[in-house]
């Protein structure tokens, strides 16, 4: 990104292609605007906007699961990134055959067990979530 902006400025300032000074100024201004826009995007777009349930294409059950995830899991697990917080990121958790940290099979049974019983520094949710909530949560996690 830094390089692009620098190159753009160089091109604009040293451009020999436009003859009239007016055109040159217009070009320069256009460049300044482009730079401002890209800097604005750099600052703003870095923090990814939270997508709505509809944008994610979640059905009612998955959306219910997302709310449970937000309340109980998000503080330790990124849902849309594999980078870790207190626990591993859960992006694509069911897309692989095995869970990355525990090496357990990535299926509903094993993941339910982890959620109900907890694991090392992960707290147990067996007392917090009922069967329906657990099902909703899993349905959502399958969309990650
Ligand atoms: C206080 C932080 C914390 C919270 C809250 C938490 N977890 Fe975890 N979770 C962890 C840690 C730490 C691990 C790694 C455990 C280990 O060392 O095996 C983990 C592991 C996991 C794993 C297995 C990952 C793997 O690769 O083996 C899954 C799946 C998981 N958590 C799902 C959830 C879900 C779903 C919730 C919400 C109901 C949740 N976690 C809430 C910290 C947390």
Task: Tell me about this structure.
With 144 residues, this protein is mainly alpha-helical. It contains five helices and no strands. The chain has two domains: 44 residues; 82 residues, Cytochrome Bc1 Complex, Chain D, domain 2 (Orthogonal Bundle). The site of heme C has 23 residues, from helix 4.
Query: In which range does the helix fraction lie?
Result: 40-55%
Give the biggest beta sheet. none
Overall pLDDT confidence: 86
Distance N to C terminus:
29 Å
Ligand inventory: heme C
Low-confidence parts, pLDDT < 50 over ≥5 residues? none
At the fourth level of CATH, the homologous superfamily of the largest domain is Cytochrome c-like domain
Report a brief summary of the structure.
This protein is mostly helical and 144 residues long. Helices cover 50% and strands 0% of the residues.
Provide the descriptors you would attach to this structure in a database record:
144 residues, mainly alpha, Cytochrome Bc1 Complex, Chain D, domain 2, 2 domains, binds heme C
Topology, element by element:
Blueprint: H1 2-14, H2 21-45, H3 60-72, H4 108-117, H5 131-141
Bound molecules: heme C.
